[in-house]
Amino acid sequence: MTELLKAGRKNIQKAAAVIKGGGIAAFPTETVYGLGADGLNPEACARIFEIKGRPRFDPLILHECSAARARKLFSSIPPAAEKLMRKFWPGPLTLVLPKARTVPEIVTAGLKTVAVRVPANRHALALIKAAGRPIAAPSANRFGALSPTTAAHVRKQLGGGPDIILDGGRTAIGVESTILTFSGGRPVLLRPGGLPLEEIEKLAGPARPAARGKKPLAPGCLKKHYAPAAKLRLIAPGAGVKPSAKAAYLAFSTVPPGKWAAVKVLSRSGDLREAAAALFGALHSLEASGAAVIYAEKVPPHGLGRAIMDRLRRAAA
């Protein structure tokens, strides 16, 4: 039986005890809600895969409460990565670097690298600190489905899976972290996310896109992901799609004409940060409308628009 608890000091301590005992606790971060287990306990991490229906070849992200503790999970750190840690941790940046021997293979899906970040959410940081160990936490949803930005999203998708769901309100950023690795000292973008690439490149230099391989090097890198139950179709803004009572519409900034099953506007002012924060909540709402198809407008592909478009393209794949 899953307990839904308000995120506060007493309940965070309770969730930390569950994690230390090998259990599972869903918790808020600044990006999306995570499904957390003791990241150094292979049996506990295995439960994450079972609850989500996640394939074992898809690695997990380890979350720590400080850069000093996070460094211990790597066996080596390039100078450019050190700069990014100092500037952007805590924050929505995940680094994929050579792993320390203490990191279980189930976390890395057998890879020699591990994905690590320090979240910028007070409840998440308090939970990790109270647990006293890194917390492995992918998004708290069914594998491939819409990411959760509220505790209600977690409860709807995962039901009685986690032992505890900590309710810390709606997440602030609304899309998952940006994931980087390094090759020859240069940054390689594995997944755009809540930290705009432009900010990273100011500090670490130009980043190149990752080459596609048979195995994902980090979470959220599969072609089909983040998808609602309804078919999602990407369209240009104002494309003149015919309205239908069986279709829903996700607009960037302007309400479309006509009658639809449901309509959501990401940002009336065209603000990409506001749009990113609203993205998954809007998609959850449109999915609940019962529409057979969701038309989603493209957004400008810069700043957080890059992350929004990444999620929409994978959802439409």
What quaternary form is this? single chain
| Cα-to-Cα separation, first versus last residue | 35 Å
Largest sheet: 11 strands, mixed
Order of helices and strands: EHEEHEHHEHEHEHEEEHEEEEHEH
Shape: globular
- The value of Rg in angstroms is 19 Å
Structural class: alpha/beta
Q: Number of helix segments? A: 10
Give the neighbour order of strands across the main sheet. Answer: 1-8-2-3-7-4-6-5-9-10-11
Average pLDDT, to the nearest integer? 96
How is this structure best described in words?
- It is a single chain.
- This protein is an alpha/beta fold and 317 residues long.
- Helices cover 31% and strands 21% of the residues.
- The chain is built from ten helices and 15 strands.
- The chain has helices spanning 9-20, 42-52, 67-71, 79-88, 105-108, 122-131, 151-158, 197-204, 272-288, 305-316, and strands at 3-6, 25-28, 33-38, 61-63, 93-98, 113-117, 135-136, 164-167, 178-183, 186-191, 208-209, 231-235, 247-251, 262-265, 293-297.
- The strands form two sheets. The chain has an eleven-stranded mixed sheet with strand order 1-8-2-3-7-4-6-5-9-10-11, sandwiched between helices.
- Helix 8 links the parallel strand 10 (186-191) and strand 11 (208-209).
- Helix 1 crosses helix 6 (122-131).
- The longest helix is centred in the last third of the chain and has 17 residues, at 272-288.
- The radius of gyration is 19 Å and the shape is globular.
- The mean pLDDT is 96.
